[in-house]
Design a protein that fits this description.
rod-shaped, coiled coil, NAM-associated_C
């Protein structure tokens, strides 16, 4: 009923029929206008419904009560560019952080490698020192063995000289006990030789 009255009023004021009825029917159930009409209906209940005119049923487009319009293309592009800039900055900072972490890791790896090289160098030096110590001990042992060999040869020569002197003693001119003693020594020397 109110729609019919609104159409008649439009024809009387504009002197032509309302041409956008199809569009109005499509939009009248849109959420934006539904919210507006709900508010209007609430206020209409408070006041007398018959006293309201058809003009009050037309939404006020400049009203703050209306729902917000969707964002336009240009504004959407601006927002997208701003978001892209922010994401690029975030990516750049993440890359910088990753590079800083990688460089600190590479520095620690380099330090670790340097320490390992120093340890290997010290171990090498320690092995060389141990080789030198072993060489000195070997030389010392060889010197001792050579000295012992010389002493043994000296003692052997002295024994041979002693035995030769004993064997060369003439027992015929000695007292019988002395001769017996020297004969026993000669016999022992002969047993050792054979």
């Amino acid at each position: 009923m109110q729609i019919d009255q609104a159409l008649e009023h439009y024809e009387s004021v504009m002197n032509e029929k309302f041409m956008f009825m199809r569009h109005w029917n499509a939009l009248r159930f849109a959420p934006k206008f539904q919210a507006y009409f709900k508010k209007k209906n609430r206020s209409a209940r408070d006041t007398d419904a018959s006293s309201q005119s058809v003009d009050s049923q037309i939404p006020n487009l400049e009203s703050d009560e209306m729902m917000e319009r969707p964002i336009g293309r240009k504004a959407a592009k601006k927002l997208k560019r701003a978001a892209d800039k922010e994401s690029l900055e975030l990516i750049k900072t993440m890359q910088k952080d990753a590079l800083a972490i990688a460089s600190s890791r590479s520095e620690s790896v380099n330090r670790s490698l340097q320490l390992q090289l120093k340890m290997m160098q010290l171990q090498k030096e320690q092995l060389e020192m141990q080789k030198e110590i072993m060489q000195l001990q070997k030389e010392k042992l060889q010197l001792r063995l050579a000295r012992e060999e010389r002493e043994r040869q000296k003692e052997e020569r002295e024994r041979q000289v002693y035995e030769a002197s004993i064997m060369a003693v003439d027992t015929s001119k000695m007292l019988p006990d002395q001769a017996k003693y020297y004969e026993a020594l000669k016999a022992r020397i002969m047993r050792n030789i054979l």
